[in-house]
Known about the structure:
There is one protein chain. This protein is an alpha/beta fold and 458 residues long. It has helices at residues 109-119, 134-148, 168-175, 194-209, 239-253, 269-273, 279-298, 309-313, 319-326, 359-369, 397-402, 413-416, 419-434, 440-443; strands at residues 9-11, 18-20, 29-32, 35-40, 49-50, 55-56, 82-87, 93-94, 98-103, 122-123, 153-160, 183-187, 215-218, 223-228, 256-259, 335-339, 349-353, 373-378, 390-394, 409-410. A seven-stranded parallel sheet has the order 16-17-15-14-18-19-20, with helices on both faces. α3 links the parallel β11 (153-160) and β12. α2 packs across α10 and α5 crosses α13 (419-434).
Amino acid sequence: MLINKLDNVEVNLEDGHKYALRDIQQGEDIIKYGYPIGHATADIKQGEHVHTHNVKTNLSENLTYTYRYKDYGILPEDTDLTFDGYVRENGEVGIRNEIWIVNTVGCVNKIAQKIAEKTGARYFPHPFGCSQLGDDQTVTQKILKGMVNHPNAAGVLVLGLGCENNNIDLFKTVLGEWDDRRVKFLNCQESADEVADGVALIRELQAYADTFKREKVHISKLKVGLKCGGSDGYSGITANPLVGRFADKMSAFGGSCVLTEVPEMFGAEHLLMERCESEEVFEKCVKLINNFKDYYASHGQVIYENPSPGNKKGGITTLEEKSLGCVQKGGLGRVVDVLDYGDRLTKNGLSLLNGPGNDIVAVTNLMAAGVHLILFTTGRGTPLGGAVPTVKIATNNRLANAKKNWIDFDASPFITGDPDKLTDELVQFVVEVASGKETRNEINDYREISIFKDGVTL
């Protein structure tokens, strides 16, 4: 069993579910991680199962918050830790030296696939880029811009059709400056043989990519995305706090981490707000939370319908419980910035990123923000991989053993072993991935993107 000294429930380490430490009266708050995760809808006797049948969320609509900064003492730490990366001509650093095909529109997905099959380039099909209006098209353009500019791609072929809303000429105005040795463009409607032309352009890009070699880069240059999916009752007591320790190490080393999944901050947002380094960042955080609640309300949805059937089967009862576990991935360091869709990561430390909890959308948002790799904790298991290496961290040993073809790292020893030692092992594993070690999603060639959509499709 695992408990916090303030909790009135304990977690059974056999199944991840909660059981009452004492009698709990109807209406009384259920306390886990030292905070309320909902209230009892009936009297609960000591030892009884505490779950969806007798617990209800406390969440409500938009709240008013007060800024009270809390410093947890994550101090700078001198280190000579390095990884082997690729230093680009603009000074940015990549941890892969790949060629990417980035579509302006979904109509050319199969053409991209044919070019990729002939060249070994990476392609990322999506259904967007045409028949979109307003903010949807803007978000699509920002995400694709982040992809084109990502330093893990040594070369990029921007592949368009010609008649789409997000046509190449328009996309260039969004893209800004580019190096024509690194970025090539192909409009398929203007090509007699678009596959042959695409292959030729990829060959040029590969020749440019071959000029880069790995070299020692200080760990402070590393940018890491933080994500969870298929969570269970162990997530908040093994993998997520382990990743939180990693995030604090990165902050101390001068590196960067990005936490997303805004709906999975609901009920735990105060823990992030109290760590915002300034009132300006705090106000951006408040706006982030309340705007996403407004998004739910605008579609007639309640804000607390988040834990999935798999989450509930794994022991998670309410969104507060899921959120209190989720935000632990951000550690205890200062929140230095709040990013919107398509914004690029610019500050060292922990940043928050706008976006839903949907796994593929969240992973894509993190990639577009410029992270080199993603730490993805999971208790139920998922094969998902993004455009950047996606490290799967199992919350429990059962999953780690059962799905070795999906899982990269086992966080279960966090409970019974030495948390400091396990944190150091995770740091070393991330350094190895940054230096070229392939993750399971790379070995399996599971690489996907999806872009947030909220508006009208023509």
